[in-house]
Amino acid sequence: MDKHDFIPASVPVQGGARVNALTVDVEDYFQVSAFESRIGRDDWRSMAPRIERNVERILSLFEKEQARGTFFTLGWVARRFPHVVRAIVEAGHELASHGLEHKRVTQQTPDEFRADIDHAKKLLEDVSGQPVVGYRAASYSIGEGNLWAHELLAETGHRYSSSIYPVRHDLYGMPHAPRFAFRLHREGIVELPVTTLRIAGRNFPCGGGGFFRLYPYAVSRWAFDRINTRECQPGILYFHPWEIDPDQPRMRGLDVKTRFRHYLNLSRMEHRVERLLTDFRWDRMDRVFAGSISASE
After folding, report:
1. What is the share, in percent, of the chain residues with pLDDT greater than 70?
2. Mean pLDDT lowest for which of 36-40, 50-54, 229-233, 235-239?
3. Ordered DSSP codes for 4-32
4. Burial level of 67, CB count in 10 A (0-12/13-18/19+)?
5. Which of 43, 180, 241, 286 has the highest local Cβ count within 10 Å?
6. CA distances from residue 131 to 87, 96, 101, 218 in whole angstroms, order as listed
């Protein structure tokens, strides 16, 4: 698809000031894509879970800062820990889908993907009693080669996706995709890319995850301020429950790059998130981007 086929989706200002979107990808430390060659999905039930305590810490932090966010949650987590999902919803946060078992879209056929997202959506809705309209692919695995995923998301009742990362990366990314809300088709669902900065003709990730742990906090604060004030756009922050858990079990036999990416600055992450919540305004994806999402109906 040529880049000129992307259709921008405008985002109106809330109350005279930019409100950023706060998101959490709800998966446990052993479910990350980087570990999938060492830990099979059949092994997950034998691993000591840490998702309950970590989500509880995040909910407490958000409540302290009076921030609401969107929790992109695995169907697997909802099935095994339904009380975690209910706690998220009861605290006033949006529940969205992260797929069933953290399987990348690039590893699925269209039929497999449709079955995955449909099952996950229904499971999350049954457990929570709330509609699920948002989706984020495992490891941002929607890109140039599988844009058909947007059509299937629309067919299964989703109204927005946050799955295309407009960066160049060794594991994911679609660098020529728009940096802000857009649609692939006029009647399609809206895509809400995680925040990036455009510097010297290249997009740099600055919306969370390992990059948020790598950069000094001042860089992240500057980036969000620039997005809000100079580009007049809401930013999107994402992180995982395991990123605020420096005491998680250490995986053995990892290569240097994977070990660096996963364990870097875990002890600093919670404090950095807290500072960002204090320095900026935050809300759920479905409220920050309400105008764009409703326009895609």
Report:
1. 93
2. 36-40
3. GG-EE---PPBTTB--EEEEEEE--GGGS
4. buried
5. 241
6. 15, 9, 20, 37
Q: Where do we find the tokens 């010297």?
A: 200
- The domain segmentation of the chain, as residue ranges, is 3-295
Range from 47-51, 142-146, 168-172 carrying the lowest mean pLDDT: 168-172
Question: Cα(71)–Cα(93) distance, rounded to whole angstroms?
Answer: 7
| Mean pLDDT, the chain, whole residue set | 92
The domain over range 3-295 is classified in CATH as 3.20.20.370? yes
- Residue 19 to residue 94: CA distance in whole angstroms: 16
Integer Cα distance of 160 and 70 in angstroms: 12
160 contacts 296 by C-beta, under 8 angstroms: yes
List residues bridging with 182 in a β-sheet. 8, 191
3-state helix, strand, coil in the chain (%, to 5): 45, 15, 40
- Compute how many other C-beta atoms are within 10 angstroms of the C-beta atom of residue 149: 25
Beta strand 160-161 pairing with 182-183? unpaired
Do residues 262 and 254 make contact, with C-beta atoms less than 8 angstroms apart? yes
Whether residue 222 has pLDDT greater than 70: yes
Strand segments (E) across 88-171: 94-97, 134-135, 160-161
Helix (H, G, I), strand (E, B) or coil at 205: strand
